[in-house]
Design a protein that fits this description.
This protein is mainly alpha-helical. 58% of the residues lie in helices and 6% in strands. The protein has one domain. The protein has a three-stranded mixed β-sheet with strand order 3-2-5, with no helix packed on it. Strands 1-4 form a two-stranded parallel ribbon.
Length: 273
């Protein structure tokens, strides 16, 4: 999967791929590259992949029927069914593989406004919590092998709970700084190390995307996407962090779909024949 925003379509095929005009879209291009070229590729290699994106996934019909089909009680049915497939095959000790393809076989339009993006990420986080709570018995359970001992704990620590850890860090700095309780030189160096490391991962992912695979051929487009990694921490991440923090408290109150009618406008996509 790759974001389609900024592309030119000819007869239903991507002909010319350009960096989107809006920064909120460019930052999502960066996130997709980072997720698919680093995180998901690595989990796939370990056969610990926990989600096949709903935009495009292929499943063996007999495997899906064996576990009772899709669960419609979550907004993250694409993730839940993958976790349940892991669970089913691990319990029966049946050999299986769940893999991802790093090259795009499906293009998707990403939200072009911060409002729509926040709604989407809130839904993603609610779905994550719903899946983890439903399958909480897998946590640190050796019966599920590396899924129970590595993949599920990773989701709890670095996806579900990490948002609260990050938020508590901001709160601590805001309180400790005026009270003189903060070691400012150490805090600055620690923050710089964390941010620069995250930028490095992003730039490596974009390097693969733009240089090795030659997807964004224009130099100006590549520079815009590379620059996105440096502004991700200047408000964008914090806006999405808030949604990640409030999402668990909204599990019983449906906030609606990721997209509302009219938001998939295709305004950043050029269609020609």
């Amino acid at each position: 999967m790759r974001p389609l925003n900024g592309a030119e379509l000819r007869n239903g095929a991507v002909w010319d791929l350009r960096a989107p005009k809006r920064w909120v879209e460019r930052l999502q291009v960066l996130e997709y590259a980072r997720a698919f070229f680093t995180a998901r590729a690595a989990w796939s290699r370990l056969n610990c992949l926990m989600i096949i994106s709903g935009a495009f996934g292929i499943f063996r019909r007999e495997a899906v029927e064996a576990i009772g089909g899709w669960w419609t009680g979550t907004v993250a049915d694409d993730m839940e069914i993958v976790v349940r497939l892991h669970r089913h095959h691990r319990l029966l000790r049946k050999p299986y593989r769940i893999v991802t393809s790093p090259d795009p076989v499906c293009w998707t339009e990403v939200p072009s406004s911060l409002k729509a993006l926040r709604r989407q990420r809130n839904g993603w986080q609610r779905g994550l919590w719903e899946v983890l709570l439903r399958h909480k018995s897998m946590f640190m359970n050796p019966r599920y092998g590396r899924i129970g001992l590595v993949a599920i704990p990773f989701l709890w620590i670095f996806e579900a709970l990490a948002a609260f850890v990050e938020l508590s860090g901001y709160v601590y700095v805001a309180v400790a700084l005026p009270l003189g309780l903060l070691n400012v030189p150490f805090a600055v160096m620690f923050m710089a190390l964390a941010v620069l490391y995250a930028i490095l991962l992003s730039e490596l992912a974009m390097g693969v995307e733009t240089l090795l695979l030659s997807r964004y051929e224009r130099t100006a487009c590549r520079m815009r996407l590379f620059a996105s990694a440096f502004i991700e921490f200047a408000g964008y991440r914090q806006a999405l962090l808030w949604e990640r923090c409030i999402a668990p408290f909204q599990l019983r109150r449906r906030r609606g779909k990721f997209w509302t009618e009219g938001e998939r406008s295709g305004s950043e996509i050029t269609i020609s024949t």
